Amino acid sequence: MSLAATTEVKPAIEPKESWLDPWHVNPAVNRDYDFIDGLRGIAILMVIACHHFYINPKSGHILHTIGSLVGTGSHGVTLFFALSGFLISWPFWKSKVAGAGKVVPRGYAQRRFWKIYPPLALSVLILTPFYILVYSDPSYFPIGLKWLAGWGFIVPISGKFNPVMWTLIVEVQFYVTIPLLFLCLKRLSPKATLAVVTAILFLAPMLMRVLTGKVVTLQPNIEVHYPSMLDTFCLGVLIAGLDNMGFIRKSWVGWGVAGIFLWPLALVTFSWFSMHPQDKSVFTNELVGWGVKFWAASLLLFIAQPEHFIAKILCAPWLRWCGIISYEWYILHQPLALGARHVFGPANGNFIKYALIVIGPIFVSLIVSAAAYRFFSLPILRYGRGRARR
User: Would residue 19 count as lying in a domain?
Assistant: First the structure.
């Protein structure tokens, strides 16, 4: 009797199904770095804290300091942009390094559309009647129609509908810029392309800010002065290029570990300058801003060792879940927070009322966003990915 006949073949152990699996859609880059969902979770929780918790302008120095520190949660957007730079450019670098004739990855435009537009349209349909009911202001209706038509991505549009929409305009600017750069540089080698793309994304936005002083305006209209914000994607794009070219070594995970400690320090520094504007100059503003961007992007270097214990912590299911629903939560949370303050008025030192004004909208926006993602966005994402593949 042969060995093959006598040896018992044990069935492969199937990975245990997680409650998170039905919420997840496979990434377009075919690289399932789960910790990136966790980083998205951190980013959205920072933004939620920044926009929901507020202080009395007449409060003392300690409360102002706390408020300033909480306000740095707005830099969760910086982390979002770094992650977008990595994830959006990764397939471009993959094609470039492989020498594929097609510069723009197949289905690129479709994937971006199905990801961005349907939740945006749903938020407009939810928020427009909410605004008219709460504020008794019918002018929100034509503004909502403009967002549905995509008008806000082309020309300045009123900022009162949803101030966070400015980040979507920046995202779309990046979505258009990155394929144009790769098309213009298609004859260059991957290394040369990496150098040129990084230099453009680093220098052009900074020169725009320094020479004109124009960045983002939220009131009365949202105006994002192209390309003043595209450097927030720069380091994510750089890391994606280095990853595809095989330059990233396991030891680079040390930069990710350093970012866990030094990014909060950079945010504290930013907070200090916000409270001491007299010490702020164009130079210090750019220097501190780049410190925040650098250490935020460094968290991506856990790709060097996805099995690192900190990366595993970032893979906590609850944190990844927050990251997975982060887009829907992002575009719905602030209007509900502002609406609660409008309806209930100031807390006037009443802690219970303050807690209700702050915590109530957080939970409502979380529940609505989770339902919107699970039953609306996710089926559309899967449909869109299927069409893109075909």
Answer: no
17 is a domain residue = no
- Would you state the structure tokens that stand for residue 220, as one six-digit string? 């009365």
pTM, whole model, 2 decimals? 0.93
Q: Is residue 10 part of a domain?
A: no
What is the pairing mode between strands 157-158 and 221-224? antiparallel
| Residue 7, in any domain of the structure | no
| Out of 8-17, 56-65, 212-221, least confident range | 8-17
**Domain tally, the chain:** 1
Max CA distance (Å), the chain: 89
Q: How crowded is residue 26: how many other Cβ atoms within 10 Å of its Cβ?
A: 10
Distance CA 83, CA 49 (A): 20
Q: What is the pLDDT of residues 156-173, one digit of tens each?
A: 999 999 999 999 999 999
**DSSP letter (8 states) at residue 276:** -
Contact 35, 315 (CB under 8 A): yes
Encode pLDDT of 277-311 as tens digits.
Answer: 877 788 999 999 999 999 999 999 999 999 999 99
Integer distance in angstroms from the first to the last C-alpha of the chain?
Answer: 50
- The letter for the amino acid at 18 is S
Q: CA–CA distance from 183 to each of 8, 105, 178, 236, 241 (Å)? A: 55, 11, 9, 19, 16
User: Which residue matches tokens 């979505």?
Assistant: 175
* Buried-state track 28-63, b at ≥16 Cβ within 10 A, e below 16: bbebebbbbbbbbbbbbbbbbbbbbbbbeeeeeeee
Residue numbers of the domain that contains 54: 28-389
